[in-house]
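To: structure subgroup
Subject: Chain for Friday's discussion

All,

I'm putting the inputs and outputs inline so they're searchable in the archive.
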Amino acid sequence: MSITLPELPPVETPAPPPCPNTARRSPSPRATAEPRPPALWRGVLLTIGIASVAMALTRTPWLAALSPMMLAMLIGIALRNTAGAMNWARPGIAFSIKRLLRLAIVLLGLQLTAAQLIAVGGRGLAIIAATLLTTFLFTTWAGRRLGVDRKLSQLIAAGTSICGASAVMATNTVTRAPDEDAAYAVACVTVFGSLLMLLYPLLPTVVGLDVPSYGLWAGASIHEVAQVVAAGYQNSSRAGEAATIAKLARVMLLAPMVLALGMIARRSAAEHAAPRPPLPWFVFGFIAMIVLGSVVEIPAPLQHQLALLTSFLLATALAAMGLDTDLRRLAAEGFRPALLGALATAFIAVFSLALIKLIG
């Protein structure tokens, strides 16, 4: 008689544990989110290169009328819309827009002192502050009436009422508008500010302003610092000095304006259960630099070099913004934001002139 043994299940041999030196681990989300240093530096060097070219070109007779910031942005836009999005440089482009811009705004504070505020006087400061606040409110109101996006309206309002491209970029740290909106706002304040720069020297006798009042008018209403200097000194040295001091006092109001917009944005985000935008801490660095420049006498050569560095960093940030600007999306904004920029420019010119005539 034969005996049949039951079949046993096959015994599976356990796989050996992986060697620690050869085991492959999937990268963590944080590791994949952070750009590798080469990708970061490629983009940063690209924006620095564009800013260097812009700084050099603006020293030539043909392009001396353009600011390095505006030219750097135009070069960046040209590259973006001919060579494509340049994804290989995107981490560095983002770094230049965010980090280098904040550093530039902080260093801008070293060009301002409390003595400049005192030199403007109480009457001048009241005119400058009232003009700034009223222009900002009018521009945002007109933007709503024209159907312009709220964020773009705020950028045009800041650039017109405070200090041109620098104010647009600083305000966008809390407004968080697309780069196309920021580029549109910079173009608006540059073009319309340049028109005022050319027009103002023809008007002092027409509107009945003496030299100090003309300087105050130019400083309180023209957009960019360079435009104010040109319009002021076109009249006389005395008018140029008055215009420059008035403009620098106006630039000091950038800090409270950006802080106020930041607080409003955070409150609005909390009410709508949206992510709260970060507080613009760099503004406190801007204020600290003003205090430092007011209590410590910075040698003139060093002051000049710091001003050049600030201008270069702003040009680098605007070059990065240009590299991130798609002209097709910019054109989609239409004509209404340009009309808003024209209305804001006309308002600030007429309103500040009326205040000077009334208070003076």
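Points worth raising on Friday:
The chain has one domain: 38-359.
The radius of gyration is 27 Å.

D.
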